[in-house]
Predict the structure.
Amino acid sequence: MAPRALTVDDLPGLLAVQHACYGEGFVEGAEVFARRIASPAQCSLVLEDGGLVCAYLAAYDSVLGKVTPLHGDFEAVPQPDTLYLHDMAVLPALAGRGLARALLEPLWHQAIARGLRRSALVSVQGSQGFWERHGYAAQPLHDAAQ
């Protein structure tokens, strides 16, 4: 499986992955993702297995501290310096097979090629340990909407 850019054609599969992974309060709708895909800031990736979406990583270029809230749009900024990881999900049946790293590594390389100096995220649903294993460190939030 090789990652590729997320497109609107992937939205039904992306929603199926979300529903398999998240509680109802964290599921973001197709209309939200369609707006994000249309944003010049977005750089999201998807993995397919046999033509079915099995994992995705929703991400965008921004500036440190400008975080998209849940259900929010990815807004372009004039001089981005940070790759923000908004949401990553892997079908539970495929967990532990390296799909997260298969999405993260190419996205990090692409961000470096675009001149971004850092990567950040907001950890939810008890995922802090997962993100720490991938090189992220906890920082205080400056805006509760994040």
Notes: The chain has a mean pLDDT of 89. Helices lie at 11-21, 30-38, 99-113, 128-133.
